[in-house]
Design a protein that fits this description.
Layout lengths: L1 H20 L8 H8 L19 H17 L7 E5 L2 E8 L2 H13 L5 E8 L3 H44 L3 H5 L3 H26 L4 H20 L1 H15 E2 L6 E4 L2 E8 L3 E5 L5 E5 H6 L2 E3 L5 E11 L4 H14 L10 E7 L3 E11 L5 H18 L10 E5 L5 E5 L2 E4 L13 E4 L13 H8 L6 H16 L11 E2 L1
Parallel strand pairs: 2-3, 4-17
Antiparallel strand pairs: 1-2, 5-6, 5-9, 6-7, 7-8, 10-12, 11-12, 13-14, 15-16
Helix pairs in contact: 5-7, 11-12
Length: about 500
Amino acid sequence: MEARSDRLMGRLRWLLFAVMLGLTPMAQADQLTELLTGAASEAPTTTDKVITTDSSIQSDFKIRTRLREIFIELDSLSGISIAVNKGVITLSGEVDSSKTETKALQLASQVEGVVEVENELTVNRSLQLRLKNTTDKLWALTKQTASSLPLFLIAVLVLVIFWLGGRWISNREFYKHITPNHFIANLLGQITHLIFIVLGIVLALVLLDATALIGTILGAAGIVGLAVGFAVRDTVENYIASILLSLRNPFQVNDFVSIDGNQGNVLRLTSRATILISPDGNHIRIPNATVFKAVITNFTRHEERRFQFDVGIDTEQDLLEAQVLAMKVLKATEGVLDDPKPLVVIQELGDSNVIIRIYAWVNQVQYSYAKVRSETIRAVKQAYDEANIVMPDPTYTLRLMQADGQVSNLVSAASVVPAEPSQSSQASKPIIKPVEQPKVAVTPVADEDDIRDVQDVTPDRTVENKVIEEQAKENHEGEGENLLNEEAKKE
């Protein structure tokens, strides 16, 4: 065991020394396997051959002669010495590369009657020989490239022609005759351009006799497309949503909509997002994938729009009289439509009042929705005040337990303040302190112009005008992209 361990350590030192000097040939990696496993590496054996029981000098001679004839025809193998004994071939000599060594062993193992091939070949690491072989290969590659250069130029010319032809066809106007949607027309043009480019690549590869690369390119394109698809999944989803939204428009330019809780006038629909201008004048950008899946409320699709508000009156009041008075006010208010008719209903009984809900319709094109609603609330409040219909504040009853067990009720018109503790009383009794009424600020009486401005119910077109101005500016500069089309189908 000690002798074997010494031999193992000696081989390891020799191998490390050879690696440091750069003298260990790459083809002799089996020595490392032998060192690590403790067993000599063997040449791969073929399991498809059967060793015969007949062996003679004549058969060995035939094997050697046949293998010599093969090696002579190959310049790189002509210098190899061949020895055959009972079907075992021994190859010796020098070869120029590891590839040549592997080729010699493979040819020897394919000869009929060969039982085993012993490898005693060595690879020539001469710098002069390596330079010569490299120079010969570069020269052969140069000649091959020079001979293939005209064909390569023709293949490039075919690819360029198909690329330019596809680009020219993709910009034609007849796509707009196929579909009125400009976005779909551009998409069809891009697909046509891509088809022409693919055809040009295939023809160029056929001219270069490199059709085997087509399958490789398609496989690589599939893998790359899959990876890119996962990476830009949101972008692709937005693009597909843009196509669907452009085919069936859920809104038009300047429609006042609510998308996923965001309200504003529609400015444009691009290939990636929908742009709104909020009532505050801010731009709101919503991805088209969100727009396509969101619940959209279009307040502009119909001219008539209904508003509502609640009024609480005292429980002692005549409810029918309050309803009739509210209906008269609605009919007399400018901007409230007679058809559809307004509606005044008793919504519910509250703790200290009765809730009356008022419904009315307004034409958004002729009047401002917010202003008509505001003016209606003001008019109803004024009519109720003049008719002495009380609209009380909520009241609460506090039940306080005194020390003697008696219960006293205090209404919300008073506030309860705890008394200072005294030694004579066992329990502190609350002190009732009246609530101070807030002082009403005296405001100057508004003049007729101010009253006229407040009561004005004409629609406010500020945001709509901003949309029109911004679209005109983008169209003038040629930077605007809008997929909304009045000729497209509506939803």
